[in-house]
Known about the structure:
Elements: H1 5-21, H2 27-44, H3 46-54, E1 71-72, E2 91-94, E3 105-108, H4 110-126, H5 131-136, E4 141-144, H6 156-167, E5 177-179, E6 185-187, H7 189-202, E7 206-211, H8 212-224, E8 236-240, H9 252-263, E9 270-274, E10 283-285, E11 291-293, E12 298-303, E13 316-323, E14 332-342, E15 345-351
Parallel strand pairs: 1-14, 4-7, 7-8, 8-9
Antiparallel strand pairs: 2-3, 5-6, 9-10, 10-11, 11-15, 12-13, 13-14, 14-15
Helix pairs in contact: 1-4, 2-3, 4-6, 8-9
Amino acid sequence: MSTSFEFLREFAARLADTICAGRALHDPCFDKLARELFRAQAVLNPAYGRLVAARGLDAAAAIHWREIPAMPTSAFKDLDLSCLPAGARTSVFHSSGTTGERRSRHFHNPDSTALYETSALQWFTTNTDGMMDRLRQRTASLAILTPPPPLAPHSSLVAMFEAIRRATNAPATAFLGTTGAESAWVVESKRAARALQDSAAASRPLVLLGTAFSFVHLLDSLEAAGRMPALPAGSLLMETGGYKGRSRELPQPELHAWITRRLGVPPARILREYGMSELSSQAYNRDGGPTLHFPPWARAVVVSPETGLEAGEGAEGLLRVHDLANVFSVAAIQTEDLAVRRGDGFVLLGRARHAEPRGCSLAAAGLESPA
């Protein structure tokens, strides 16, 4: 099998066709694709290749996708974990964080950006109950509680929201956020209130997208102004991400109950999204339940922090994701998030205090950055 950069482009095109066709990827097919991609990434991504070598693995050996070594998300802060030559990198996604915190870096080029958008749009469409068609037909409206792309050029979340906006021909004014001091995201409260009121007055359902802290900002401002319009039946909200000190924090059930109480959106119409800058695919819940699911071209497993082995059904551990859409970086990602395995999905518990499972540290693999 070729391990050239051209192979990665061909792999990305094949995967995009599979995604767009809605074809299932049963485990034997997923395993074959994952091993193809692993062999190429072990050669074309030097930092990842060192991790593979440090584990004493032969990338050409026939191993199951579950045995492919995962790169911890912390490594994206220190290493150039990319198959793209430096001169071919046209954009980069950074992880969110507070000022002065080191950010993860996920490099992209036009091929990887196109695949990211294909992955994001297909799975969002699948999980939003026909709302993409309603947005295209102008029987629903779109509102986004983040800054637009020019103000947040390194946000994978904003890139996803922009892909949704373009795909539905919604106006650029759908973005209702801006940036404040130290580039912190701020909801433009008056514009957001008008968008909600216009939706209610026209009896046109609203698709409202934002982060957890942006919904807190929005609801606080609406209550302070004495404005709390109930959204029309059929409206859908998508909430994602944590707080990062950007607002007071609410447990997710409390936030969702507040949204239902004040905006009239039932729990089954509040979509929870899980994603990160190091990935190219997202997970969603279904019907308001707590269990999250990745698309067929990605797999999630929960591993024991003590052993690094996969945890059983209902067991708590660290979330590991194998995302085939990460063609030009690393497909196997070890997150720092605690989760419980639920069938082919998982329930997110939050961040782990000591996140890296045994055997995943950069120091152990000889990959730590030089002082």
